[in-house]
């Protein structure tokens, strides 16, 4: 147990000198009294609320509820706003900003008199951004997931975020629904605050945060609009104060075993491929090596048990009523490291005791899985020497072993135009290839990986075909999409050398992905390849392109992935 004099904030607030006098007088300027803060842990509430972040619209309320808990437990709460990465609104892609959010979190905590942190977020990149920053800073930190929104509803039909947008967009393009129907869907698909309620990056990453041990038990699946969510926020506020006294730092939570548990849960949830990038980045922040093979290996062992769209039938609200993540993890005991400790100061052995599933169709048992295994496959070959990823479960099964001619698009705009062209020479055998959509190329590795099926083929009723890119894909997307090709085209990966008409061979069972072009021809093309002009000459974009790593490395900045120490600020 720490003493008040050992608190980090003591250097700002507790000592008898002119500087500390200044700090205390400034707190008093805001109406606080010595009794509010003297000798108490200062808890930063890092809040990613904004007026244009639909998924975090409730986080101002939640911050107040966290404060209530911090006061109850004898801490001093201070809310620190951080960049809010609203997945749909922030362009060109939130992924361009994940590492900047992580930097902001780290520096907010470092530069202020803070002893511990509550991290408020959940919309896609906010979860990894908050955690990465907190891990690098190393102070006790507890994640309060924003939670999923309620189910969508249209004429009594349940609608899911993302998945049903793509689905009904195709139906509109095919002429199967009217413009009026489409407008009604717009009003029904998102009808409360909270994150996407399908198994997108948000739901996957919040579950992963819980499995890593960074949330209170069963926090990650509580619907945002449920009163349980408010109580979870307050309980988190109480707990973080004790975590400071006990010095429960991220380093004590993040172990190889915790990472394994996170990968198990990711697979059992049928989680987003984006988690792979984020979890590798998180692990490396903690100095723990994690690579793509680990995901493939875990995926072969662990069945998909969460029957949630897009892999399954239900939504996160149903998942909560069925018992939530605690119930799911209760069905995964044999795969989990049960002795890992969490921020709750308990092991999974203790947390999962008595965990019950209330709807065995939503949260399946190992004897009745949604998929027996193989939710994530990592492919290698001359087209992806450093790997590429795929969700076989979300693809038409005959495409898992396929050889066909490529149609290659050098960028998104060319692709978007071509797929709408009824004259495009394309059959269901073709492989659509998008270049220059990776970390450098996009820039920011946007979620373009689910290339639209050409309009001509949609009209013929085709809904899936093989697609390959160095982009990411939304977790709410589906189809035979091979993603994260590394190295990316922009830096001269083999993907940059592919030409329309080349044959591409994929064998998911064998985990291979090849461009069937002779080695000497490839060498000639490589010789002729010239690096593109950089996207940015100034600003954050320039910093991004100077420091961003490839997908298989987690897309972190090289200056952040290092474990080199940063000195505590001098207080003068
Ligand atoms: Fe925020 Fe999907 S838009 S989680
Ligand atoms: Mg998403």
TrEMBL record:
<dbReference type="GO" id="GO:0051536">
    <property type="term" value="F:iron-sulfur cluster binding"/>
</dbReference>
<dbReference type="GO" id="GO:0016836">
    <property type="term" value="F:hydro-lyase activity"/>
</dbReference>
<dbReference type="Pfam" id="PF24877">
    <property type="entry name" value="ILV_EDD_C"/>
</dbReference>
<dbReference type="InterPro" id="IPR042096">
    <property type="entry name" value="Dihydro-acid_dehy_C"/>
</dbReference>
<keyword id="KW-0411">Iron-sulfur</keyword>
<dbReference type="InterPro" id="IPR056740">
    <property type="entry name" value="ILV_EDD_C"/>
</dbReference>
<dbReference type="InterPro" id="IPR052352">
    <property type="entry name" value="Sugar_Degrad_Dehydratases"/>
</dbReference>
<keyword id="KW-0408">Iron</keyword>
<protein>
    <submittedName>
        <fullName>Dihydroxy-acid dehydratase</fullName>
    </submittedName>
</protein>
<comment type="similarity">
    <text>Belongs to the IlvD/Edd family.</text>
</comment>
<dbReference type="InterPro" id="IPR020558">
    <property type="entry name" value="DiOHA_6PGluconate_deHydtase_CS"/>
</dbReference>
<feature type="domain" description="Dihydroxy-acid/6-phosphogluconate dehydratase N-terminal">
    <location>
        <begin position="40"/>
        <end position="350"/>
    </location>
</feature>
<dbReference type="InterPro" id="IPR037237">
    <property type="entry name" value="IlvD/EDD_N"/>
</dbReference>
<keyword id="KW-0479">Metal-binding</keyword>
<feature type="domain" description="Dihydroxy-acid/6-phosphogluconate dehydratase C-terminal">
    <location>
        <begin position="361"/>
        <end position="555"/>
    </location>
</feature>
<dbReference type="Pfam" id="PF00920">
    <property type="entry name" value="ILVD_EDD_N"/>
</dbReference>
<keyword id="KW-0456">Lyase</keyword>
<dbReference type="InterPro" id="IPR000581">
    <property type="entry name" value="ILV_EDD_N"/>
</dbReference>
<dbReference type="GO" id="GO:0046872">
    <property type="term" value="F:metal ion binding"/>
</dbReference>
């Amino acid at each position: 147990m720490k003493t008040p004099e050992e608190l980090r904030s003591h250097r700002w607030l507790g000592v008898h000198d002119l500087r500390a006098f200044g700090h205390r007088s400034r707190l008093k300027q805001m109406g606080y009294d010595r009794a509010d803060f003297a000798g108490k842990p200062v808890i930063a509430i890092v809040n990613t609320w904004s007026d244009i972040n639909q998924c975090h619209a409730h986080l101002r309320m939640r911050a107040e509820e966290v404060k209530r808990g911090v006061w109850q437990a004898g801490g001093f709460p201070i809310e620190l706003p951080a960049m809010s990465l609203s997945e749909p609104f922030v362009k060109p892609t939130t992924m361009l900003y994940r590492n900047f959010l992580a930097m902001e979190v780290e520096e907010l905590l470092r530069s202020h008199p803070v002893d511990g942190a509550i991290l408020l977020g959940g919309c896609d990149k906010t979860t990894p951004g908050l955690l990465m920053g907190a891990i690098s800073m190393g102070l006790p930190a507890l994640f309060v997931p924003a939670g999923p929104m309620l189910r969508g509803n249209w004429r009594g039909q349940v609608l899911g975020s993302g998945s049903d947008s793509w689905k009904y967009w195709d139906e509109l393009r095919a002429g199967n629904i009217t413009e009026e129907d489409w407008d009604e869907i717009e009003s029904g698909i998102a009808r409360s605050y909270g994150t996407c309620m399908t198994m997108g990056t948000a739901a996957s990453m919040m579950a992963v945060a819980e499995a890593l041990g960074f949330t209170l038990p069963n926090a990650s699946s509580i619907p945002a609009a449920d009163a349980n969510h408010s109580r979870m926020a307050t309980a988190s506020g109480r707990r973080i104060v004790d975590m400071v006294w006990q010095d429960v730092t991220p380093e004590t939570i993040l172990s190889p075993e915790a990472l394994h548990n996170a990968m198990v849960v990711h697979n059992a949830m049928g989680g987003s491929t984006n988690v792979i990038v984020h979890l590798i980045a998180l692990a490396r922040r903690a100095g723990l090596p994690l690579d793509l093979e680990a995901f493939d290996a875990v995926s072969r062992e662990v069945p998909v048990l969460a029957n949630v769209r897009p892999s399954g039938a239900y939504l996160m609200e149903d998942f909560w009523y069925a018992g939530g993540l605690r119930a799911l993890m209760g069905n995964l005991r044999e795969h989990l490291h049960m002795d890992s400790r969490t921020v709750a100061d308990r092991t999974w052995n203790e947390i999962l005791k008595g965990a019950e599933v209330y709807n065995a169709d939503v949260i399946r048992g190992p004897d009745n899985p949604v998929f027996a295994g193989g939710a994530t496959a990592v492919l290698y070959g001359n087209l992806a020497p450093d790997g590429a990823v795929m969700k076989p479960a979300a693809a038409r099964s005959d495409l898992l072993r396929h050889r066909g001619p490529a149609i290659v698009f050098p960028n998104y705009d060319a692709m978007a135009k071509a797929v709408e062209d009824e004259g495009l020479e394309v059959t269901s055998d073709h492989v659509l290839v998008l270049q220059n959509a990776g970390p450098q190329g996009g820039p920011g590795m946007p979620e373009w990986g689910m290339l639209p099926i050409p309009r001509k083929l949609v009209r013929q009723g085709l809904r899936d075909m093989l697609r390959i890119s160095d982009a990411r894909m939304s977790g709410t997307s589906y189809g035979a999409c091979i993603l994260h090709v590394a190295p990316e085209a922009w830096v001269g990966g083999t993907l940059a050398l592919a030409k329309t008409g080349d044959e591409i061979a994929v064998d998911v069972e064998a985990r291979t992905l090849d461009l069937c072009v002779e080695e000497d021809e490839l060498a000639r093309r490589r010789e002729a390849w010239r690096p593109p002009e950089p996207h940015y000459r100034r600003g954050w974009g320039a910093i991004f392109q100077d420091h961003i790593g490839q997908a298989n490395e987690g897309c972190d900045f090289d200056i952040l992935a290092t474990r080199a120490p940063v000195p505590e600020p001098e207080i003068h």
